[in-house]
């Protein structure tokens, strides 16, 4: 940049002359200077000025009354009282009254001050000079000289050993801070690869808490399930359900287009991870006619009759399927964990 | 002895009014007189658009005041509790303490809901205010030397404000904000190599864990606001130090600043404006519910509501993620999640473009002078067009961030909206650029026309031979000056490629690029030459013949 020819030919050169206060007599575009002050009604007529004064005082008085009103509302209205206010509808009486009295109290102070400034304070425009931000050359020379003197006094330039070890020490000491951050969390290891599902885990209805039988699941219905033994009150429930949440639908077996999906299903019942493979929202919308499941967050759409492949939206890969079967007692069970990580993709996913 | 010498001074001081004595006391310790000398009657120019920055400052103060109040009642904890408060629909529901205490603030602390709503509304207004304030600074060229650093401070405030807002609305641990946190975690996972590590470290393990509310809390109330407070102070000090820019007009030059003094006019106006902003936000908080977390329910990673939307300033990032095709590359046992990572990078680039613009422009113009007179946007057509192109891209992406709501509210196909955003992201800015530039040039032409031929008076005159003409009134010298004072750059040329000795020198790539960009900024068809005094005089004399 600096190496280039920075000739300032392209710049309009007349920055200063054009804006000089001295108008060139024959230049019709010359700066005529500040226009004369125009008096306001308040400057000329004392009655108008008095009226402005009363307006300002009235606004400040209204503010005081509103503050008293605020305190009164705080005392009077019980917090649970709901009132109907047209056109807003039903609102909390306390919130509404406190908010409006506070608003009036604040607004009137502002309105009073601004009205005072606009009508009664002098509105004569003043011109102030600007000074260049950059220092004068003498100042710059002095500073550079001081710096040089300081640098010489420090002997840092000559005592290389001090300099190098100091830089080394300063560079290394923040490492302690970084090391201390290590225990913010565990290493990822294979945590994202496993869920609570495993061979023999029964599928439990999320809403009723009962284990699911194939006959509980009607064609076209959408059921959410969790692994048996995982209860809401459990420590770690949130982390487990964030990976194990399951979505079960029943299709006509002949509608299932994907071979593996069919193999891993039971009488047309298929179980997929409920966690979207895009950024991890739970998929919660199901259209039974088309067998499409939709994530309401970013509209990724999966075809549950075709291996849950992505047919629309930003998701990058199909929903993982859980291999299910029926145990001896006739309940649906998992025949293993998901064979791929659930949820959003990540670097180590592969 | 010493008594006799100091007595007269003490006596004198005893006579001075109380205020002066207090000021003397403070001056002896703080040197306030020297400080006030330059600042008490400091001149501030007047223009409505200069209030936009004030709105940001005041909403920031309001956020801090209300935020401190909220910390008195909020429990930043993810311990599971069963709710037994006054809000009947949530009786017995399992939730985190953070969510429960937010319910308590809303239903059991008198005025708590109001303060919560003022806090949230003020945050939205703070971000919106900064957005519009930055537009004002951009389109008027107020970011030019010497204010580039202050532009960066403002830019940082905007970006930090976004993240402070995000960490803030995530604190109640409700279903909506939790979904947003999950989205963020999913986006972090997409970062190559370190994504899973960052996620584990941020959340203290797997998502959601039991740590993030407490961690976001300290980020939200301490780390980010602390940095922002420092930046706000630095921003204001620089505004004072540089003295405010002003719009051109009679008597206003690069060497002066014309306006009203700080004391009393700006103390009253700006101080009063704080109360106006606070009052309006209080009224909004009284009337309009925001973030009713009690209707949304506590967060569960396996549940979600429809129509999930972030606060507006994150909608742009949301849009990028929503419309990006789901590209994933699997190679050598690793996954490159481009479908999420590209939006993440674009998000940074789009914001970063704002930060670097002042430096790019000053490199292209080569202008190293100070600028205190503002440009009218029309007089810098390329800059204005670039700005409008950026905003167009931002707004189209914002539409993408709410594609589901657009679809349901306007009965449109979500596929169509997604494709509109995908195409619009690239085509929209180009169209906006061309259209804006043309409008700017049209306005420049109109200015030139007005200067040379005067203002249309609306008076129709019939000449003796039957012709109708409209009488044009010549402009006053004030108006003539205002319309012609602006500067017009000439494009930079690549200097001679042979020096005086006939030796060829190498033209660097940067130099060529600069010449090209300069041509695009100031070359042919990018500005209408402003009328000259000679033209004006010629035409005025011509009028005499009528």
UniProtKB/TrEMBL annotation, chain A:
PROSITE patterns xrefs: RIESKE
Membrane topology recorded in Swiss-Prot or TrEMBL: Multi-pass membrane protein
Occurrences of domain Rieske (ranges): 238-333
Chloroplast listed as a keyword: no
Chain spans, region Disordered: 25-48
UniProt keyword NAD, yes or no: no
Compositionally biased region (Basic and acidic residues): 37-48
Compartments reported by the entry: Cell membrane
Gene Ontology molecular function, alphabetical: 2 iron, 2 sulfur cluster binding; metal ion binding; monooxygenase activity; oxidoreductase activity, acting on paired donors, with incorporation or reduction of molecular oxygen
Recorded GO CC terms: plasma membrane
Primary localization: membrane
Keywords: 2Fe-2S, Cell membrane, Disulfide bond, Electron transport, Iron, Iron-sulfur, Membrane, Metal-binding, Oxidoreductase, Respiratory chain, Transmembrane, Transmembrane helix, Transport
Transmembrane segments annotated in the record for this chain: 56-79, 91-114
UniProt family annotation: Belongs to the Rieske iron-sulfur protein family.
Its biological purpose: Iron-sulfur subunit of the cytochrome bc1 complex, an essential component of the respiratory electron transport chain required for ATP synthesis. The bc1 complex catalyzes the oxidation of menaquinol and the reduction of cytochrome c in the respiratory chain. The bc1 complex operates through a Q-cycle mechanism that couples electron transfer to generation of the proton gradient that drives ATP synthesis.
Quaternary structure and partners: The cytochrome bc1 complex is composed of a cytochrome b (QcrB), the Rieske iron-sulfur protein (QcrA) and a diheme cytochrome c (QcrC) subunit.
Protein name: Cytochrome bc1 complex Rieske iron-sulfur subunit
Organism, as annotated: Streptomyces albidoflavus
TrEMBL record, chain B:
Single GO MF descriptor: quinol-cytochrome-c reductase activity
Translocase is among the record's keywords: yes
Gene Ontology, cellular component aspect: plasma membrane
Pfam family, any one: Cytochrom_B_N_2
Single GO biological process annotation from the record: respiratory electron transport chain
Entry superkingdom: Bacteria
The keyword Ligase is assigned to this record: no
Catalyzed reaction equations: a quinol + 2 Fe(III)-[cytochrome c](out) = a quinone + 2 Fe(II)-[cytochrome c](out) + 2 H(+)(out)
Keyword field: Cell membrane, Electron transport, Heme, Iron, Membrane, Metal-binding, Respiratory chain, Translocase, Transmembrane, Transmembrane helix, Transport
InterPro entries, A to Z: Cyt_b/b6_N, Cytb/b6-like_sf, Di-haem_cyt_TM
PROSITE patterns referenced in this protein's UniProt entry, alphabetically: CYTB_NTER
Enzyme Commission number: 7.1.1.8
Sequence ranges assigned to domain Cytochrome b/b6 N-terminal region profile in this UniProt record: 22-248
Location (main, coarse): membrane
Gene3D superfamilies listed in its UniProt record: Cytochrome Bc1 Complex, Chain C
First-level EC class: translocase
Segments crossing the lipid bilayer: 50-74, 120-139, 151-171, 183-204, 216-241, 273-294, 331-360, 380-399, 419-436
Co-factor(s): heme
Protein location: Cell membrane
Mode of membrane association: Multi-pass membrane protein
SUPFAM superfamilies: Transmembrane di-heme cytochromes
Protein name, as recorded: Cytochrome bc1 complex cytochrome b subunit
Organism: Streptomyces albidoflavus
Lineage of producing organism: Bacteria, Bacillati, Actinomycetota, Actinomycetes, Kitasatosporales
This protein's encoding gene: qcrB
């Amino acid at each position: 940049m600096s190496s280039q020819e920075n000739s300032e030919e392209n710049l309009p050169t007349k920055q200063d002359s054009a804006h000089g206060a001295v108008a060139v007599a024959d230049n019709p575009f010359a700066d005529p200077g500040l226009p004369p002050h125009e008096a306001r009604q308040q400057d000329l007529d004392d009655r108008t000025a008095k009226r402005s004064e009363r307006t300002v005082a009235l606004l400040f008085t209204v503010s005081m009354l509103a503050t008293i009103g605020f305190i009164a509302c705080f005392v009077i209205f019980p917090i649970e009282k709901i009132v109907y206010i047209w056109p807003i509808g039903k609102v909390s009486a306390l919130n509404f009254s406190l908010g409006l009295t506070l608003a009036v109290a604040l607004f009137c102070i502002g309105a009073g001050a601004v009205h005072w400034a606009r009508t009664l304070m002098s509105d004569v425009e003043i011109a102030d000079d600007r000074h260049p931000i950059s220092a004068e050359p003498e100042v710059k020379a002095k500073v550079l000289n001081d710096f040089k003197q300081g640098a010489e006094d420090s002997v840092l330039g000559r005592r290389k050993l001090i300099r190098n070890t100091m830089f080394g020490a300063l560079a290394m000491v923040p490492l302690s801070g970084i090391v201390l951050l290590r225990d913010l969390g565990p290493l990822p290891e294979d945590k994202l690869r496993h869920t609570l599902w495993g061979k023999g885990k029964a599928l439990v209805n999320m809403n009723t808490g009962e284990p699911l039988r194939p006959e509980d699941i009607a064609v076209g219905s959408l059921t959410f399930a969790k692994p048996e033994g995982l209860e809401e009150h459990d420590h770690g429930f949130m982390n487990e359900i964030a990976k194990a949440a399951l979505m079960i639908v029943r299709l006509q077996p002949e509608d299932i287009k994907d071979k593996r999906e069919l193999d891993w299903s039971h009488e047309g019942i298929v179980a997929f991870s409920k966690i979207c493979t895009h950024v991890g929202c739970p998929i919660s919308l199901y259209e039974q006619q088309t067998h499409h499941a939709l994530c309401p967050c970013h509209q990724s759409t999966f075809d549950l009759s075709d291996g849950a492949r992505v047919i629309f939206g930003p998701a990058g890969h199909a929903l993982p399927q859980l291999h299910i079967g029926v145990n001896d007692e006739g309940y649906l069970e998992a025949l293993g964990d998901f064979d791929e990580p659930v949820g959003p993709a990540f670097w180590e996913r592969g | 002895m010493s008594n006799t010498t100091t007595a007269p001074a003490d006596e004198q001081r005893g006579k001075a009014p109380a205020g002066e004595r207090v000021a003397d006391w403070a001056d002896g310790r703080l040197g306030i007189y020297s400080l006030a000398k330059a600042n008490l009657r400091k001149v501030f120019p007047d223009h409505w658009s200069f209030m936009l920055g004030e709105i940001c400052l005041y909403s920031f103060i309001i956020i801090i005041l209300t935020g401190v109040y909220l910390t008195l009642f909020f429990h930043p904890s993810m311990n599971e509790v069963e709710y037994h408060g006054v809000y009947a629909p949530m009786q017995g529901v399992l939730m985190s303490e953070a969510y429960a205490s937010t319910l308590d603030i809303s239903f059991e602390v008198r005025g708590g809901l109001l303060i919560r709503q003022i806090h949230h509304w003020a945050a939205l207004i703070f971000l919106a205010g900064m957005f519009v304030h930055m537009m004002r600074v951009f389109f008027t060229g107020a970011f030019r030397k010497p204010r580039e650093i202050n532009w960066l401070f403002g830019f940082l405030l905007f970006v930090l404000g976004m993240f402070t807002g995000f960490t803030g609305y995530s604190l109640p641990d409700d279903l909506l904000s939790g979904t947003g946190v999950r989205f963020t975690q999913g986006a972090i996972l997409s970062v190559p190599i370190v994504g899973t590590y960052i996620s584990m470290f941020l959340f203290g393990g797997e998502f959601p864990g039991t740590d993030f509310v407490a961690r976001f809390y300290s980020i939200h109330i301490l780390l980010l606001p602390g940095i922002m407070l420092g930046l706000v102070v630095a921003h204001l000090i620089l505004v004072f130090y540089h003295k405010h820019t002003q719009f051109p007009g009679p008597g206003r030059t690069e060497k002066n600043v014309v306006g009203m003094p700080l004391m009393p006019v700006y103390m009253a106006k700006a101080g009063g404006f704080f109360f106006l902003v606070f009052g309006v936000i209080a009224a909004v908080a009284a009337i309009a519910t925001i973030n009713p977390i009690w209707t949304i329910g506590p967060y569960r990673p396996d549940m979600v509501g429809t129509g999930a939307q972030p606060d507006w300033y994150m909608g742009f990032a949301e849009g990028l993620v929503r419309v990006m095709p789901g590209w994933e590359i699997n190679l050598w046992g690793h996954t490159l999640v481009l479908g999420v990572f590209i939006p993440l990078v674009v998000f940074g680039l789009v914001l970063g473009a704002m930060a670097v613009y002042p430096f790019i422009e000053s490199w292209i113009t080569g202008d190293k002078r100070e600028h205190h007179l503002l440009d009218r946007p029309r007089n810098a057509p390329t800059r204005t067009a670039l700005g409008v192109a950026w905003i167009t891209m931002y707004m189209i992406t914002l539409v993408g961030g709410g594609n589901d709501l657009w679809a349901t509210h306007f009965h449109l196909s979500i596929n169509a909206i997604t494709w509109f955003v995908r195409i619009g992201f690239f085509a929209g800015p180009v169209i906006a650029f061309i259209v804006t530039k043309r409008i700017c040039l049209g306005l420049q032409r109109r200015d030139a026309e007005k200067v040379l031929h005067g203002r249309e008076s609306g008076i129709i005159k019939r000449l003796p031979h039957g012709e109708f003409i409209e009488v044009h009134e010549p402009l006053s010298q004030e108006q003539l000056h205002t319309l012609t004072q602006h500067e017009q750059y000439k494009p930079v040329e690549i200097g001679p490629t042979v020096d005086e000795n006939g030796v060829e020198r190498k033209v660097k790539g940067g130099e060529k690029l600069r010449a090209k960009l300069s041509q695009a900024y100031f070359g042919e068809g990018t500005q209408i030459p402003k009328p000259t005094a000679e033209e004006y005089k010629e035409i005025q004399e011509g009028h005499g013949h009528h």
